[in-house]
From TrEMBL:
EC top class, as a word: transferase
One MF annotation (Gene Ontology) recorded for this entry: glycosyltransferase activity
Record protein name field: Glycosyltransferase
Pfam families referenced in this protein's UniProt entry, alphabetically: Glycos_transf_2
Domain Glycosyltransferase 2-like: 4-119
Keyword field: Glycosyltransferase, Membrane, Transferase, Transmembrane, Transmembrane helix
Length: 345
């Protein structure tokens, strides 16, 4: 059984990248595996470090490309994959030494198209594992697939305790991906994994979970995903548009799950842009742009005066933010609540 490990790389911190590569190259798996490093137009020395690894180990292939984003980097990895099973790893995270051998034992025995694995969030002083609440291997049925899909948008729908959102917690049968032409959407710069997950859930006939920590996610409050980002509104509006198109014709549950996801994404726009302390624009300018967002973009269709009522049981914080946005609306009060909300979270 051969694995293809896909690692997209862009200006990664070298110390983190070395830790990632050490965990990959020191696997106790006795079978065959390849490592495909996709350097997505890095402007630091990380591309040269990738080449050094390729010279050091024949299992490593390095692809240098112009910067096209993580979706296209992963897609290139899928195209190049020569193994039977594919696994994505982010370059600042790492995997357990027995990741491949443990997965191989399950894949040989049960042969699902997709195998979910448990993961662990790691901060400098604490770690939190996330599993599936069972032992060993579980097969997921069609109802589980529906709940997982809805749970990607609204966690209250998912009966299993682990998060299914990241592709780094899944082993994929390469033949299945290629047969169904499954790829990441290149126009998405945020939440690419969510749409990829939804598309393969529609296509896959067999899913399974292995309740064993395989992946370590380095949770960094200072990462690019947590910094002031003037482009975040554009990124999220594009994601919302794709997701809204996806749910058309589906049940009312999908409409309600979408509403929750849209609310959550709206809060992300506030966090990283409108109410971020790093934005130095005056309040009048911020207020004018915020009013444009809620009144003259797709958010005027996605959310409204009654949204807070449906969100309330799931998140009082989100409900309050929606009430201040669509029922008053007041940018000043929204900012005051946001500061208080951040302190009590």
């Amino acid at each position: 059984m051969k694995f293809s490990l896909i690692v997209p790389v862009f200006n990664t911190e070298p110390a983190y990248f070395h830790e990632c590569m050490d965990s990959i190259l020191n696997q106790d798996y006795e079978g065959e595996y390849e490592v495909i490093l996709i350097d997505d137009g890095s402007t630091t020395d990380i591309g040269r470090i990738c080449d050094w690894y390729q010279q050091k180990d024949p299992r490593i292939m390095v692809i240098h490309q112009e910067n096209r984003g993580v979706s296209e980097a992963r897609n290139e990895g899928i195209r190049r994959a020569g193994g039977e099973w594919l696994y994505f790893i982010d370059p600042d995270d790492w995997i357990e030494i027995n990741a491949l051998s443990s997965a191989a034992a399950i894949l040989w025995k049960y042969s699902p198209d997709i195998l979910y694995v448990a993961y662990q969030e790691d901060l400098p002083n604490t770690s939190t594992p996330y599993g599936y609440g069972g032992a060993g291997f579980q097969t997921l049925d069609i109802m589980d697939k529906e709940r997982i899909g809805l749970g990607l948008l609204d966690h209250s729908y998912n009966s299993l305790p682990c998060c299914f959102g990241s592709v780094c917690t899944q082993f994929f049968r390469v033949e299945f991906l290629k047969k169904n032409h499954l790829r990441f959407l290149p126009q998405l710069r945020r939440m690419q994994d969510t749409m990829f997950n939804l598309y393969f859930l529609d296509a896959t006939p067999s899913l399974g979970v292995m309740d064993q920590v395989v992946y370590h996610y380095r949770k960094n409050p200072q990462s690019i995903c947590n910094r002031f980002n003037p482009a975040i509104q554009e990124y999220i509006l594009e994601f919302n548009k794709v997701l809204y198109q996806y749910i058309q014709g589906k049940s009312e549950d999908w409409a309600r799950a979408f509403e929750f996801k849209a609310a959550r994404n709206y809060c992300e726009i506030l966090r990283l842009y409108y109410l971020n302390p790093s934005w130095n624009a005056d309040r009048k300018q911020k207020k004018a742009q915020w009013e444009q967002l809620i009144r003259h973009t797709a958010y005027a269709r996605y959310l409204g005066k009654d949204s807070y009522k449906r969100i309330l049981k799931k998140s009082r914080g989100y409900a309050a933010i929606l009430f201040l946005t669509y029922n008053i609306p007041s940018f000043f009060l929204l900012g005051c609540f946001w500061k208080a909300y951040k302190r009590i979270r």
